Structures are given as C-alpha cells and as structure tokens.
Amino acid sequence: MKKTIVVGSRDSELALTQTHFVIGELQKHFPDVDFTVKHIKTEGDKILDVALSKIGDKGLFVKEIENALLSKEIDFAVHSMKDVPTAVPDGLQITTITEREDPRDCYIAKDGKTRLFDTPQGAVIGTSSLRRSAQLLHQRSDFEIVPIRGNLNTRFRKLSEQDMHGIILAYAGVYRLGWADKITEIIDFEKSLPAVGQGALGIETRSDDDFTINIVSALNHDTTASAILAERAFLRQLEGGCQVPIGAYGRLEAEELVLDGVVAGLDGSTVLRDQVRGSADESDALGKKLAQKMVERGADEILKQVRQEFDANA
C-alpha cells in the first residue's frame, strides 16, 4: 500500500507552483509515495489593505501552516525562505533548503522598456518592501515609493491600473510563474541586496518525523543551505524581522563563503553595507560576525530609529 504524505502550502498561485515543483522533484526519488496538497490561508494572505510593516512580521505567511504541522494535519510545508522567521517553533525544523534561484530583485516597467534608474524625476515605484525602498531611495531620493501588496497577478493588475512607472519584485517568483518576459531589468546586487533567503525554498517538518525527514532531505542543496543559514544568522543576531530594512546575500566563491549585508534607514539617507568571508562550515558564526561588524558601525542605532518610527506611525 502506498504511503500518502500531506503537504501544506499557502494557496497563492506562486506558493502552489513552488509546492508542486517540490513534489515533482520528490516523486523522481520516491515514486512509490503519494503526495497530496492542503491549501492553507495565512494571516498575511488575508490582510491585504495594510502595509506588512504595520501588522507585525512574526510568521505572517507561515504561522497557520506551522500550526497545521504541529497538529499533524500536514506532514511537511513548503515555504519561500524569505518569509520564514529566524525562530522556528519547538518541535519543528527547516529540514531542507532547495537550490536557490537567482535571488536578485527585478524591475517591471509599465511601458515595458524604461530601466529603473532611467525613469524621470519623481518616478512612482511600487514595492511592499522597506528593504527595497530604502536602498532605492539612497540612490534616488526623488523616487515616490508606493506600497503594493497582493499576489503577483494582483500586483501586475495594480501596475496597469494605477499611476506608477513600475514595480519591483523578487525575480525568482516572476520566473517560476513563467513571466520572465515581463521583466524590464534584473537589479544588480550593488544597487539592491535581496531579502534574507530570497530565491530559495525551505521544507519544514516535525523534528520527530524521521520518515518525512528522510524523504525531503533528498532535495537539500548544501551550498544554498550554507548561504541561507549565514544570512539567517545575520538577521537573527540583529533581531530583525522580515519587514525591517535588512538585506543579505551569501554565496560560495572559490570554496569560501562570502556574505554581504545591508542595514538601512527608512528614508534611505543612511545605508550601511559590509562583507565577511569564511568557511562554509561556519555559516552561523559568519552571519553573527557580519552582524557584530555592522553593529560596531551603528546598525543597531539605525534599527532602533526604524522601530521608533514604526511605533510612532502605528
């Protein structure tokens, strides 16, 4: 008799595309296992008329899914790693991190051709990310940043209906939905460091479920995992959440793990960037080292100011 595994996923088109991709890859390794998908609506999917930064950031897109894991309604969950808080609930673990897609941000122009930094003075740019807006404002303080939320279909619709020059999204999501032809440009890391974990998928399981752990481990990509663990250690050490203007990018260069990080003020006037290098076997320590390096340069003061501004606008 075939074993059936229940997989939890947000019910957005992108989340389901990613979940079915993971299932398809697992079927290649385990053809005798059946997989079924349970759609779960998260708090972040329900509240679409408020900026994410104003409704908190502790598991907005994963909490309900993690509850389903703990109650054994599902056997594992597929997440975009950039949505996963650095603290995972007791009894759960991120067992697998898949090979990363290009983690950069991308720009989609309404006219389909004008590049981001060629837009006119006062250009209106849509993004829901404080990390993106702060880095862009640092380079073009004239940009008017407008919040734009919802799934990718919704954001494309808003671009066509509203008075915006363009929108900024994660390249990986646009690519996975087959919409790469809509992209005007992919934004260089020098201009915008991505969110922690951007471009990678994580598979979360119960810590005591050896059967499922064994199955999903087949998709773990060691190089990506090392990079993501370093990025998450950096974020955790700074006590930053998904909605704080913090970015990071880890990668292997000549057998060495290189980690870049950025911490920015909301208006983009202050942006700190730094880099560390070290062994891929010491991802956690490397992330902490970069965080400490940036704290010594004033990152904690920037984040303190950001939180005070959040509180004042709450």
From TrEMBL:
**GO MF annotation, one:** hydroxymethylbilane synthase activity
A Pfam family reported for this protein in Swiss-Prot or TrEMBL? Porphobil_deam
* KW Transferase (keyword) present: yes
Q: Which cofactor does it need?
A: dipyrromethane
**Enzyme class label:** transferase
The protein's job, in short, is: Tetrapolymerization of the monopyrrole PBG into the hydroxymethylbilane pre-uroporphyrinogen in several discrete steps.
All copies of the Porphobilinogen deaminase N-terminal domain together span 5-211
Q: Under which name does UniProt file this protein?
A: Porphobilinogen deaminase
The species is Dethiobacter alkaliphilus AHT 1
User: Which reactions are catalysed by this chain?
Assistant: 4 porphobilinogen + H2O = hydroxymethylbilane + 4 NH4(+)
Transferase in keyword set: yes
| Residues spanning the membrane | none
Subunit record text: Monomer.
Which ranges carry the Porphobilinogen deaminase C-terminal domain? Answer: 227-295
